[in-house]
């Protein structure tokens, strides 16, 4: 039975939830396929995540391996293939709680970086799991700066082998998933040396564990890097190499080859490969970043209509906490952001598909823009969504702090996305570099890529809004965002030039502008996200009330951004204080409007109870029962392990006299 | 041997580290006592926290009980007493990793709320640990709103007993520490009923476990609430009461008594008791909130001068990451905030000591102000410090994400401080209510408490700064903060009045202003923190360079607040865009100045390696060695537990054919 405080929220939905779900999925057929996959996975007890919050790192790892192995069977049984329409839903249905993800990266890197001969040899072995692969790039001492990697691979002409070493402790490979305990092979990135000359970083296939008994191969030291904030199910590992010899054929050689005599040959274009690396940043957004925020919103919003605390009006029943303006102000902007980023993700996916087609036609013109967009949006979305999940967690008070709420693990997992696949600050600075370059080009009348043409049109106008309703006009707020992005970019470009002209060296000047460059890059992405949301709303079906509620969310997303960062819009007088007060008024009004549809808006995400794995967020809203029942199953609910040794002697005063 | 990249940072300190340490401790004698306590605790292997990151919840709990029991011996052995000068350093030296903290709360509540007879009976039992106490207030359904608690205590005149019940699932006590597995007794807060009439919440001593064998008493259901984001060492518990009868004498009756015939008598003044509850909020700031931020700063800053990544200048060695402006901008404001809040904590302690004296003299005038300050600062400091620890964690990239860095557990622990002892938003609204009331009074020419007299002097001036150096003048920035606090309070007061005058009901009007009321309360606390820091610097010894570096930190704290919240200062034209650019310039300049002393400034916090418990933050900066050595001891560094069952059959293809 559904908690009446929750079911009443559903009876007044202003739109059709099922249609919104289909819209998010990309059609009713997609919804059907997704639900079928989820049903198949969740009804299989091997994939259960029910005990996850009680398990140790060892137990989590073992379960993840069991699931990975079982998944092979399941796919065969269900007739799912890697190219089938179901495939993309499997990982999501498992909530990523499965091993051998790096095995897939291992295979992809061979496919992309390997010669045809290498592909023919290794891919079948990997596909049949006769080997288990990992991907060893990051070292103790180097993550972001790949050129600084210290592992070496020296070519020995005499034996036609590469000799691999991690010559210093900081050169030790550190973090690669599946490597700590599972992998038999890995792709090691190392500085290639031939006849004493360094040719830079290259990939090498290295066997690390015996295929017979899984013992470490000669010269290999490897193990698990120990406990982390999350990802207990993954055996992130370390790897030391001491004079490990591998045959010449093990250097992945689609783009570079070492001939038997030691001649180094570079062949083909690596650009498609760089592009592949860029797309990884985009591909992770959906499952690793958006899904956690959408789940957190679902949990926190459902809880906030079930939890009653204190009274809004004297003499009345205690109020649902979502009826408090402060609670709305915490949660509803996160909900709006989840939709905004869902739509920008669609936009990026489409752009990258187009880019891929162009690049296959050997047209590399889009690469810089795609790189800038993928870097910037990876940083902005991961940062925003991580903050959003944390807000949802805190907004649930004490119960949000229990692992059983599901929120702590969503937070500790999404937090990692701010760090992996490029640290966010570094990525934003790459976007900023592109912006500055394009701004200079545009100022000089040269053509620039589509996403930055707006930089050319520096306007010094003022915001034309006359009353608070004007701020519900997407043209008004989109232009405001554009204005800020242009201002921050042009001001920072000017500061940079001033510094250089005053004699500061170029790299010093750049460093002295980086705090502001980061702001400019964020403003650029924020502008595009707002513009894209507004355009998406424009194109939506006008039936079923969906366009209307999406328009409200778009307005909220835009106005929340202004309200939270008023200085950027006030700075040069683009907006006046009076206009900012209108923004605030419109923004606060919107909270009360969207609050009415808050539960239907998270219902539309269509998460099952099992996928939320939360005592606070279940569809039926029976929060307290679930917390109690679940807690009783905790391994801490046995007789105190300290009783005989400490509590009993203490209470009975048989402890050695103090 | 100290990493040369770290030791070089110490050679150029602009001030005497040891003198700053003494200043923070309150004198060299205090430093000596503190170090002696730390040394005694850390040299005792029973208190070791070395394995903490590897332990399960059960193991953590057992260790915490062991430490609590051992601490009794240790104190006796060392001659430490609860009233001695060492006492306040013990908990800090243990990093709070010890059981029976609620036993102390149990004792304090009896001392404060109990009659002399009750104190005489229960306190000796508790002191000798013949019983172990807990404190059962929070329920599944109620935390903040105490009046809403649902547990009942019905007086039965016939038997002279109270009959206690948790009549609904939401009435179940939930969260009390030490109650899940350890406590034999607890103080239960319940609605008192006599002859069918409710007299509100009262405290009752209830035995929950047998003193013979620790089994649950009749009518009691209790256990552990399961896994949380941190505090694995504490057995937070649940408690169901079913017709549990306790004698009339077990109601704590210093302020209220039930006579044998059921007559309810209220006696004495509870105000000193309310004051006690208020001071708890202040007393937790030092150990639970400031210490974690100071530790996080120590770890992140030391790591940032040891970690080298990428090149600032082409052709040079890779740069220390603290030399990047963006890294400085992440960490140094947190360092400045740690000092700012350290000093405001001193201010609050002193104020509360004065308040205590006044209240003992039956002068309760200071209570509203003290309540407003303790609420507001508890919220502002916990929020700021939690965000600061998170920034430190993220600023360490991948290594910050390892539990071995120490940062994740600092974060997950400090996060709880935003929730317990009053949820922050609720607390800020209590401060705001005081501000609005005082503002109205001041506007009407009535006297107001000292901390808010500034509200009376609404000035409509403009910031007089003419160049960026003017913003290093404390008068300039303190006044700016004051201006913003006044503006936000007065504007919100005006909005509130407008709404009420336009016919909106008072409680609705209040709710519609709460987002802005929270802003006003934060601005008030921020202003006081800046003013207090500036005044503290004023009074410092001018020798040994300490005043100078503290002045820089004070400037940074103030300017960072403006830089991060420019809109508040630009809104009504108090500052111009040109002035804001000066703020930015001065702020960024300061980063480079303070960066030089960053390591000495964290060294002055004087944390030992054992207390940091971090592979990144040790005094010698041997980061990579420590990570590697520590990881090798992880329980995940055994043969894969999945090998025989899953990996071997998979690799050897003996899994049942797919």
UniProtKB/TrEMBL annotation, chains A, B:
It comes from the Eukaryota. Keywords: FAD, Fatty acid metabolism, Flavoprotein, Lipid metabolism, Oxidoreductase, Peroxisome, Phosphoprotein. One of its GO terms (cellular component) is peroxisome. It is found in: Peroxisome. GO terms for molecular function: 3alpha,7alpha,12alpha-trihydroxy-5beta-cholestanoyl-CoA 24-hydroxylase activity; acyl-CoA oxidase activity; FAD binding; fatty acid binding. Residues 473-651 form the Acyl-CoA oxidase C-terminal domain. Gene3D superfamilies: Acyl-CoA dehydrogenase/oxidase, N-terminal domain (1.10.540.10), Butyryl-CoA Dehydrogenase, subunit A, domain 2 (2.40.110.10), Butyryl-CoA Dehydrogenase, subunit A, domain 3 (1.20.140.10). Coiled coil: none annotated. GO terms for biological process: fatty acid beta-oxidation using acyl-CoA oxidase; lipid homeostasis; very long-chain fatty acid metabolic process. The keyword Zinc-finger does not apply. Its cofactor is FAD. Residues 17-132 form the Acyl-coenzyme A oxidase N-terminal domain. InterPro entries: ACOX_C_alpha1 (IPR055060), Acyl-CoA_ox_N (IPR029320), Acyl-CoA_Oxase/DH_mid-dom_sf (IPR046373), Acyl-CoA_oxidase (IPR012258), Acyl-CoA_oxidase_C (IPR002655), AcylCo_DH-like_C (IPR036250), AcylCoA_DH/ox_N_sf (IPR037069), AcylCoA_DH/oxidase_NM_dom_sf (IPR009100). FAD binds at residues 138, 177. The active site is at 421 (proton acceptor). Residues 274-436 form the Acyl-CoA oxidase C-alpha1 domain. Its main location: other. Belongs to the acyl-CoA oxidase family. This is ACOX2 oxidase. The lineage of its organism: Eukaryota, Metazoa, Chordata, Craniata, Vertebrata.
